[in-house]
Write a structure and sequence with these properties.
28 strands, 591 residues, alpha+beta, 21 helices, globular
């Protein structure tokens, strides 16, 4: 019988989530060591201090220290005050001894199993097992003699890469993490899995790194950087941008450690690939020919967030057959159900990604190989869909900024009073299903001439969200009440002599238009649609004499639809009220 830690946790409610995992993994480490090295101990032996006692025989101070740190992090006080908990843990220990299943392969499977059970290990977001498999298989397409896992956590990503490379004794494993407990965990796990040439350092990877003396070894870098939010930091004078986000500080630290021939596989958010702050850094990356591939991952792989994520591949001194070009791919269609909180990458998707990446070929619509000139033309965006949806672009196009003015809304505190004339202040919640709900908007008193000219909305204005989790779009109907544009909204005011606002509105709400807007949104947790990006948006150029007539007809049809819908809604409301009142009257008669 093969034991599963997650099943044991589920059937023993007296284990709290965090303490239960720690205690069960401690027992698993003990038994894995004893089974491999043929060490026996009495079942009633006190667990506390047992792992340091076992590792006392192992040469090397670092591994002994790791055992002590790991042991000291255990919630031993729970066992002392809960006899039922101690008995359950003893039963688990006895089952491990009896089943002889505590092998290195079983130990690694338990880490994946714990991820499947509740997805978070030791209060940190662990790299999903199927994503580990994708990175490890891509990395193993070419040999290497060293693996460096940055922000390594338990070292599960680097360890899977080591196994894909053949578990060769000559491959060394290095790791770095800021969490001392996880460093100790990684050292013990590597040792128990048969990796004897390893070194795990407790350090901040963004700090200066001094490379050890001696010849350089061909290296694979792996990194699943933690999500750093919207924090920026000032940078040194030799950096093209004065302030960059923390994820790019980590990327630059990684690139600074790479030698010609080294490769790196990094999980990053979409924001890192499109934000204006790091545009110059992305340009530097492409111009230096250090970017090999960007692969879009399906949403939902991580249970604690649903951010758009990409796998970015770097290489210095790339082969001539790939030089000057970048491989882009989209794996969004290759997710399969996992747990109720997370999805998985499908085996077929992993196979296709590895095959296309190795061949460096275009497989429409899955992948594209893009010359660096095209990336420069796209403003150094590294978002894969920018290059995988070229067929969706209109055959003739023009810049939105050439036919419309774009204004970001008014940043005004609620209740601000400048004069006695009330105005509605529209916000995101007032846009619902393509309609503007003026009756739900806040009212403010603002009336200076400059505010009236800049922020007062008018008929045919197109309003859309500039900041938020969802993109909403509406067009202002005829004779709108006096209203101002709120700070989280953007207004597009089309010059009617150049373009039809209703044709533009239909394009923006179409699938093609939504894809185009998605490509120019920035941000991670909060999506931002900047005015500068909107001005550069390509829209269809309807070079037809009938386009103006069609736009006018669309407007008439939309107004008629709105009027008839309002009449139907009002008629239904009256009928509903009448029927419900009859029900109440009938009940009163019966009583």
């Amino acid at each position: 019988m093969t034991l599963k830690l997650s099943s044991f946790l589920a059937s023993n409610s007296q284990f709290s989530e965090e303490s239960g995992k720690r205690l069960l993994l401690y027992v698993s480490f003990v038994q894995c060591f004893c089974q491999q090295y043929h060490v026996s101990y009495q079942p009633d032996t006190q667990l506390e201090g047992l792992l340091p006692l076992l590792f006392r025989q192992v040469p090397g101070y670092a591994i002994k220290e790791a055992a002590v740190t790991f042991d000291s992090a255990m919630p031993w006080e729970l066992l002392q005050g809960n006899s039922q908990l101690a008995v359950s843990l003893s039963h688990f220990q006895q089952e491990l001894v009896r089943s002889c299943c505590a092998t290195p392969a079983w130990l690694l499977a338990q880490l994946d199993d714990l991820f499947e059970a509740d997805n978070i290990l030791f209060d940190v977001s662990v790299t999903p097992p199927t994503l580990c498999t994708l990175i490890a298989r891509l990395a193993s397409l070419r040999p290497a003699r060293q693996i460096v896992d940055l922000c390594c956590g338990t070292y599960s990503l680097g360890l899977r890469t080591w196994r894909e490379l053949g578990s060769a004794p000559g491959i060394s494993c290095l790791g770095e993490d800021i969490n001392g407990y996880l460093c100790s965990f990684a050292r013990l796990l590597l040792f128990l899995c048969g990796v004897y040439d390893f070194s795990i350092a407790e350090r901040d990877i963004t700090l200066p790194f001094t490379e050890p003396p001696g010849p350089h070894t061909p290296t694979i870098f792996t990194a699943d950087f933690p999500f750093t939010g919207n924090r920026t930091r000032a940078t040194s004078k030799d950096t093209p941008s004065s302030r960059i986000y923390a994820d790019w500080l980590m990327i630059r630290a990684l690139l600074g450690r790479m030698h010609p021939g080294d490769r790196a596989f990094v999980v990053a958010t979409k924001g890192a690939l499109v934000r204006k702050n790091e545009c110059a850094l992305r340009a530097e990356l492409v111009k230096n020919d250090w970017l090999d591939a960007v692969i879009q991952l399906p949403p939902g792989l991580y249970p604690d967030h649903n951010l758009p994520l990409e796998l970015v591949v770097f290489e210095k001194a790339r082969p001539s057959s790939r030089s000057g070009r970048v491989f882009f791919a989209d794996m969004s269609a290759f997710s399969i159900p996992g747990t109720r909180r997370a999805k998985k990458l499908s085996p077929s998707g992993i196979d296709q990604a590895c095959r296309a990446f190795q061949s460096f070929v275009c497989e429409v619509p899955f992948s594209a190989v893009v010359p660096k000139e095209a990336i420069e033309h796209a403003g150094w965006s590294l978002y894969p869909l920018t290059y995988l949806t070229q067929d969706n672009l209109p055959s003739r196009s023009l810049r939105l900024g050439d036919v419309a003015s774009i204004t970001r809304g008014l940043q005004l505190a609620k209740g601000s009073q400048v004069c006695s004339t009330p105005r509605y202040l529209l916000n995101i919640r007032d846009l619902q299903n393509g309609e503007i709900l003026f009756e739900t908007a806040d009212q403010v008193e603002v009336g200076s001439v400059s505010l009236e000219e800049k922020y007062r909305i008018q008929e045919d204005d197109i309003i859309l969200t500039s900041k938020g989790s969802a993109l909403k779009i509406a067009i202002v109907p005829p004779n709108p009440p006096a209203s101002y544009l709120g700070g989280n909204l953007t207004r597009i005011r089309v010059r009617n002599d150049r373009y039809s606002p209703y044709l533009l509105y239909e394009y923006l709400i179409s699938e093609r238009g939504q894809n185009a807007l998605n490509l120019i949104q920035t941000g991670t947790t909060i999506r931002v649609l900047g005015s500068a990006n909107l001005k550069e948006l390509n829209i269809p150029d309807y070079a037809s004499s009938s386009a103006v007539k069609i736009g006018a007809a669309l407007k008439d049809a939309a107004i008629q639809h709105r009027q008839e819908k309002r009449k139907l809604d009002e008629a239904f409301a009256r009928k509903r009220e009448s029927l419900l009142s009859q029900l109440t009257t009938a009940k009163e008669r019966e009583t």
